[in-house]
Amino acid sequence: MLTIGGLRGASRERLSKVLRQAKGSISPADASRALNVEQGEAARLLSRWSSRGWLSRVRRGLYVPVPLESSTADLPLEDTWVIADRLFAPCYIGGWSAAAHWGLTEQLFRPVLVVTTRRPRARRVEARGAVFLVRTVGQRAMFGLKPVWRGTVKLNLSDPTRTLLDLLDTPAVGGGIRSVLDILKSYFSSAHRDPGLLVRYADQLGNKAVFKRLGYLAATFAPNEAELVAECRKRLSAGNAQLDPKLPGERLITTWRLRIPAGFAAVPKA
User: Fold this and answer.
1) Distances (CA, A) of 164 to 66, 98, 186
2) How many other C-beta atoms lie within 10 A of the C-beta of residue 105?
3) Are the beta carbons of 124 and 60 closer than 8 angstroms?
4) Three-class secondary structure assignment of 242-269
5) Which residue, 202, 222, 218, 224, is CA-closest to 256?
6) Residue 262, exposed/middle/buried by CB under 10 A (0-12, 13-18, 19+)?
7) What is the C-alpha R_g of the chain?
8) Side-chain-facing half-sphere of 17: CA atoms under 13 Å
9) What is the pLDDT of residue 59?
10) pLDDT tens-digit profile of 256-265?
11) Which of 75, 167, 194, 270 could potentially form a cystine with 180 if both were Cys, beta carbons 3.0 to 4.6 Å apart?
12) Burial class (CB in 10 A: 0-12, 13-18, 19+), 192
């Protein structure tokens, strides 16, 4: 266990100045700007303060302050979303993490789902007990986002409709197609429901498999969404898609050119 040691006056003043300007986490660039020193010197200062227990190292080049009331620096991260934003920006919090935020699911997933334009070396990143699952998209896919505040830090979160679209695009980011179906039902019964926006977002994303999945699920499990189903029919592309790419599609629903796994009802005839 790393205990917190004392700091002399000058060092304490410099740390206080860095902390006053910090927004959730601290990098050498942040400390360099706060203290008007070279980044190399700033990095050494952060490392020294970390070794004394005043900062907690998240990973190389990134630290978080240790609360004054704490007797140890060995603490879990207080806000994993803030850390995700620092590690993977430009990015947004999406998938199951966003679905839980919008009240579309009661399932709790430990990893934070992060969507970024960067290409990290690992898709699963662990830092100080927090786990991040990272998905890479192109810049054109960075839409349908809502800024949210976490303390003094503003970061991006997929809005409810974009969250559902991402789940239909890649069911794995929603925990698999059965979880996606539950979230879809919640969306249709919530104040977030906006079928027109969902279609526009899907057009903008450009993955035609989304319309096959959405049309099939809406026609089967949300019979009141007839207009949405009709819009999906207009956009059907050639070829067959999988309802869930992670599961074997044992039966072909020709109406939707979609292969579905065992356990799903057949779509009603048009």
Assistant:
1) 37, 9, 10
2) 22
3) no
4) ECCCCCCCCEEECCCCEEECCCCCCCCC
5) 218
6) exposed
7) 23
8) 16
9) 74
10) 999 999 877 6
11) 167
12) middle
Q: What is the pLDDT of residue 1?
A: 45
Q: What per-residue confidence (pLDDT) applies to 224?
A: 94
Angle between helix 160-169 and 209-221 (nearest 10): 110
Residue located via tokens 């794995």: 172
User: What pLDDT is stored for residue 69 in this prediction?
Assistant: 41
Q: Which top CATH class is 9-65?
A: mainly alpha
CATH 1.10.10.10 occupies which residues in the chain?
9-65
- CA-CA distance, 131 to 19, in Å (whole number)? 25
Centre a 10 Å sphere on the Cβ of residue 255 and count the other Cβ atoms it contains.
17
Q: Which residue has the tokens 């902390």?
A: 19
- Between the two ends of the chain, the Cα-to-Cα distance in Å is 65
- Residues 246, 247, 250, 252, CA torsion sign: negative
Rounded Cα gap, residues 96 and 178, in angstroms: 13
**pLDDT for 98:** 97
Mean pLDDT by 10 residues, the chain (270 residues): 54 79 78 87 84 76 65 56 88 97 93 93 81 94 96 92 98 95 97 98 97 96 96 97 94 95 61
What is d(CA 218, CA 267) in angstroms, rounded to the nearest whole number? 9
